[in-house]
User: Which sequence fits this backbone?
């Protein structure tokens, strides 16, 4: 069955450093992979989408890579700030169906300290 | 636009009672999704609609769960009878695109079944 693995333990990082979050998937050949941010008590918010033919995508301080051979996506936040503290969810997309039938990982909680 | 609107935000009920969760998607979005989030299993897709028609309900856990979308601006998720293991946060999301579409989530309905 399809499986998504994200670091279950929280990632603690100092302000100004680069945070790197990992998403591994198995039994999948996703055409896309999306990353979302979720704050406590709120719904997930879309951050980035990367396609299988793209190696890397950037948006401001965010960078996502997508390695279809390793079946892995890395999510980087450069110059991290306390406001970046949240849970980050990766969501590989399957090719079944016509809609974005996303399957989410359980997420990695990022804590940025001063 | 006000975004995806869900109600109620919190619901506490007793086992055996009927629960109805409501969702108003973003105007113009043709796709509507119902997800359930728990600590153990993360975000799970229950069902999604396209143009008010249920497309994939393979994630609906059992016959106690049902979802309807009578028109483009309203959907319900009903649990009857409810059980303690149904306790979770239920999210509704909408999208204007099929494959590769960004999902816009509501703030969720936290359900506690005693």
Assistant:
């Amino acid at each position: 069955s399809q499986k998504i693995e994200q670091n279950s333990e929280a990632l603690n990082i100092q302000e100004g450093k680069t945070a790197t979050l990992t998403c591994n998937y198995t039994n999948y050949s996703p055409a896309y992979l999306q990353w979302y941010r979720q704050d406590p008590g709120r719904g997930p918010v879309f951050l980035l989408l990367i396609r299988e033919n793209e190696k890397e995508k950037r948006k401001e301080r965010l960078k996502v890579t997508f390695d279809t051979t390793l079946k892995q996506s890395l999510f980087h936040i450069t110059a991290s700030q306390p406001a970046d503290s949240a849970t980050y969810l990766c969501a590989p997309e399957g090719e079944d169906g016509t809609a974005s039938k996303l399957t989410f990982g359980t997420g990695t909680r990022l804590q940025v300290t001063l | 636009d006000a975004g995806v609107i869900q109600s109620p935000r919190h619901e506490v009920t007793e086992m055996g009672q009927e629960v109805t969760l409501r969702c108003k998607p973003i105007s113009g979005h043709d796709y509507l999704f119902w997800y359930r989030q728990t600590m153990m299993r993360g975000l799970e897709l229950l069902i999604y609609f396209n143009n008010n028609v249920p497309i994939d309900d393979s994630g609906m856990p059992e016959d106690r769960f049902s979802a309807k979308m009578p028109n483009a601006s309203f959907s319900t998720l009903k649990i009857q009878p409810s059980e303690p293991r149904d306790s979770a946060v239920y999210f509704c999301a909408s999208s204007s695109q099929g494959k590769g579409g960004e999902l816009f989530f509501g703030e969720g309905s936290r359900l506690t079944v005693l």
